[in-house]
Amino acid sequence: MKCRECGNDILQSAQFCGNCGASIDYNFPEVNISHNTQVGFTTAIGLGFNRVFDFKGRSSRAEYWWWVLFSVLGDVILSIVDVAMGTYNAQSGSGLISTIFGFFILIPSIALGVRRLHDINKSGWWMLMWTVFWLVVPFIVLIWWAIKPSHRGANKYGPDPTLAGDQNESF
To answer: E-strand spans in the chain?
Structure first.
């Protein structure tokens, strides 16, 4: 069997080409961008909403941290709007609009976290450590993994998003 991207011979059971990293299994998006493409703020937000139920594949470190910035900024700005509109509850420490925003970004945030774990070659099930957020160790481990650079080259979750991926797909 030959790779459709580079023509290299590959094993019948392979999911990725060992030479160019192209997906052999059609569950992964087509590789269509140049090497070392960086994901920007607006691209990361678009990918977050475009891949809302995509728990497969990989997301780069830049995509993850741009999404975190978007989430924090959105929450802060909408909390200020809640206070100004009188929809902020001081007892609960939350406002109506910022809570709706939190629910709106919940699933995309989980999906992005799973893809980020895939990027460092970890199972997405590690995201369940957030459920014990009151413990310090799981929090530190997940932050450490979020900071780690991408696993170089293809892994069992897909091609390396920092070398080739679908960051330029339209949304």
So the answer is: 88-89, 94-95
